[in-house]
Structure prediction request, 210 residues.
Amino acid sequence: MGEQLDKVKVALTELDLDAIAPAVKEALDDGEDPTLILASMADGMAAVGELFEKGEYFLADLVLAGEGMKEGLEVLEPHLEAGTTGQKGTVVLCTVKGDIHDIGKNLVATMLSSAGYNVVDLGTDVPEDKVVDAVRANQAGAVGLSVLLTPMVGSIGDVVSALEEAGLRDQVKIAIGGACTTQELADRMGVDALGRDAVEAIRIFDGFFS
Ligand code: B1M
Prediction:
């Protein structure tokens, strides 16, 4: 990892909020690829998660890490966005019911918009009927669900069932992503794909709409 990228990761891992945005800016000024900077931020967040699991960080530290990620993203996002939006198709995106993590979902939204999708972002803790309503109202061709909490994976199944009951399941492809998701979970929940990161999410939706 380059020195500037390492600085980004360390600033986030050490919760040095004053250093995060400047570190991202320095990396950009140095010509680092924005997607690599993004990956360094994700590495920093993963390290924070590990420290939380070990009992070295507490909930307040997770909140700080979330703030730090947002500050870094504010600097980075304009460099991820390419321009033309809404050409390829409409994707309804949300974090599932019971889960309020939104950083990864927001990243996926930004990347999809910049890749030319119309993204209908429903936010976090979204019940299945809201997803159904949004798919219908926007004639969406795909749904993206973000889920980070293992106890909330059942919310994925609730969305699948609700779309089936509404007679919409055949019209939409569904992808899931987020820290606690696996291919085994995707298969079990009856969704069409699993995206491990925002870049893979774009590949998946490109496949859905091709
Ligand atoms: Co929470 N949290 N958290 N947290 N948090 C995790 C997820 C956890 C793994 C930490 C840990 O214990 N190691 C753990 C979950 C364990 C589990 O169930 N497996 C956990 C827990 C337990 C909790 C609480 C229950 C803590 C508590 O209250 N005791 C609580 C839950 C609240 C709730 O949701 N109801 C909670 C709260 C919070 C904060 C609010 C403090 C904060 C969130 C702030 C926010 O989002 N605005 C927070 C944070 C920051 C984290 C960690 C540290 C970081 C998450 C993150 O933003 N990662 C996280 C640890 C970790 O994930 N290692 C943790 C960076 C982000 C870029 O990655 O979201 O994975 P990610 O998204 C990636 C990919 O996954 C993928 O693309 C993204 C970009 O590459 N992707 C998709 C994501 N969604 C996709 C959708 C797609 C495709 C790809 O659609 C097709």
Observations:
- Residues 42, 45-46, 48-49, 52-53, 59, 62-63, 65-66, 69, 98-105, 107-108, 144, 146, 148-150, 175-180, 195, 197-198, 201 surround CO-5-methoxybenzimidazolylcobamide (CB under 6 Å).
- Residues 86-209 form a domain with the Rossmann fold fold (CATH 3.40.50.280).
- Residues 140 and 172 are 7 Å apart (CA to CA).
